[in-house]
What we know:
By secondary structure, the protein is α+β, with helices and mostly antiparallel strands.
Amino acid sequence: MTTTRDGATVPPLPGDTPGPPGDISARSFWAKPFEEREQTFAWLRANEPVSYHRPYESTLVPPEPDSPGFWALTKHEDCQLVSRNQEDFTVTQGVIMEDFPEVIVVASHSFLAMDDPEHNRLRSIVSRAFTPRRTKTMESWIQGVAKDLVDEMIDKGEGEFCELFAKQMPGRIFAHFFGVEVGSEEAEILMDSAEKMLAWDDPRCALGRDALFTFAEEVERMQDVALAVAELRRDEPAEDLVSWVVHAEVDGERMEDWEIAAFFSLLGSAANDTTRHSLAHAVRLFSQHPDQLALLLEDFDGRVANAVEEVLRHSTPVQHFRRTATRDTQIRGVDIKAGDKVVMWYCSGDRDEEVFEDPGRFDILRGNARSHMAFGAGGAHFCIGAALGRQMIQAGLRAIYTRMPDITLAGEPEIQINHFMHGVHAMPVRWSR
Length: 433
Ligand code: HEM
């Protein structure tokens, strides 16, 4: 079945290829394993690279019978084209395939949901904190955080990897950026709410709350922490990002509390959960591909950077972002109308056979692994923390595989039900003490 932009479903004509094996608008689709979902994206890439879909079965704002659907872009090239074209594709109408109420977007998305020049004005306040050069100066501190975590877990011999390591590492680093003490109640809230606010569809994170309430409540928990620190730093600035932001001026004016709060809910969620899932995928992939682990261990320093790129390509921790067309246009000859939602499926671009040879293979020596879209497709919203994210994953792998080279899965990883993050809810592992 194909869905047209007018909402009609068209049965296949005799001789037509049957439709995709799965329905990306169905919530149940996102409970399936990643590799099974990839079969649907592979079908779309091959048969209908720009395809129209009914609205997602949203639990945030359930669709009405006349709610519009969305275009799915599944080719690497098309995602890049849209990501790099702010004139024709805006972020101001929402950034994921589901709709949030506008008030929530304003309160929580900050410059992620702004076009230039507003976007650039706000982004530039923090971008200086995350340049590759500045990130490099944090290298030994970040390695120290990873080493401490291994010290804390090594004698256990087994455990749940996200709780022991993947969640802790970005959590501790971002506690520092937020100006809260590692191990404090505030640091725990930041780690916990970062996970839950981006997994509203997963009952293990929603804990009986409805989806919108889950998101809003977790955003509020994170913002309360940031605002409490901001209050302190107004009079007594310290060496943290909150002080920087509180005293920064945008167009000659200080930011208001709600702007600071939105800013930190974007940063906290964008930095923590993405890195946590990437670290978990790294250990999962090396555990499932011992030949690749052997290659990595053979020349760790020479191969780790490319291995990180291949982990990011193969697992694509952030699976999509959305834009909305500002005017009538065309993609691959398909008519797109002003106001249409256009979803860039990075998880599909990262498996595009026209860019990556044998894309399902996990190959840490792959020559063009870095062409992945895990940090976005190159436009104005390209990940501000890409250098830091890469560095955290590298440091994590170094600490883990120098001390626990035989760490391996001790059971099936539990993957989140989530169309946005390729999230790992929990992952049992064991290693020699
Ligand atoms: C492996 C870890 C990470 C992954 C996979 C990741 C992925 C992404 C993606 C896909 C985007 C959106 C690009 C788009 O709209 O197309 C993004 C944006 C962003 N990321 Fe990351 N990210 C990671 C780590 C971080 C870190 C450590 C930070 C902390 C500074 C961060 C902060 C941000 C911010 C602030 C944005 C919004 C940028 C804008 O709108 O201009 N990310 N990230």
